[in-house]
Amino acid sequence: MPHVLGRLACAAGELGVRGAAAAAAACSAGNELAMARILPGIFKHNRCRNGVYPQSDVRRYPVPDESVFWSQTYSDYQPPVHESPILHGKPWADLSADDPAFKPKWNELDGKVNRVSFIGGKYEIRDDCPVNPFGRTGIRGRGILGRWGPNHAADPVVTRWKRDESGEMILHPDSGKRILQMCAIERQDCGEWAIPGGMVDPGEKVSATLRREFLEETMDNDAGDEAGAVEQFFAEGTEIYKGYVDDPRNTDCAWMETVAVNFHDESGAVVGRFPLHAGDDAAKVRWMDVGEEVKLYASHSNIVKRVVDMLEAHW
């Protein structure tokens, strides 16, 4: 591990992101594409820079705005290496990069593990390690992420309209628009409110992950008499985002990506019957009014904003 990641650090100052010029050209072609995707070489992650790495006392090496991208010279860049002990021996985690038994197939389906990025295009491999296509994070290794390179998640954004006791939709007094509510969980690891999502298991379809994670996080895996209604509700949804997540767990060598799908109950008659109670990694679960003032975990606010725009709700 040390010598592999050490070589990676030596090359970091000169590393350029392939496709940055193409990404810039795509962005200049129209704002619509820029809104649809977060692009390497343009978007600067923020939540995975500076400060202390989650669930540790390891402080990230400072990365100023002008030194985020690998194409920008940062000759003094010497980030620490961190791999959480919780990864050791776990079936959901890769082996150490220096383990001779670890022979991954980068940028392709590696057995049941999907190492293809949701971002589009191939990520770089330098000195046998994947390189975060969005730039420096101030830390090397995997941190608490199980996979080298992309770690895939799925986020079900379950929404309904806020209604009064008579069942009428409530309009916001300032915007005059309908108020959207989302099913949110309070994460046990950091106490922040979030979309009730989770990791895609090896060989699992994203559609199955979306349903499974919602059941685990908001119903403690027990839908009771509403099991059939839950199954039907999650049969159809609208994909609103697929790509990189500005997640505090990201490192130079491992990062989060997600597929976010909106499941909207226009009448509120279906989700209102769901027996919500926190389970798995959630401390609490509740219906939350969506608005600009709401602060959510990682990039979840940006994801929810896309749903708001799509449904023309108050923000």
UniProtKB/TrEMBL annotation:
Domain of life: Eukaryota
Xref: Pfam families: NUDIX (PF00293), NUDT9_N (PF25969)
Listed name of the protein: Nudix hydrolase 6
Keyword Amino-acid biosynthesis (UniProt): no
GO molecular function terms attached to this record: ADP-ribose diphosphatase activity
Classification via InterPro entries: NUDIX_hydrolase-like_dom_sf, NUDIX_hydrolase_dom, NUDT9
The Nudix hydrolase domain, residue ranges: 161-312
Record carries keyword Hydrolase: yes
Alphabetized UniProt keyword annotations: Hydrolase
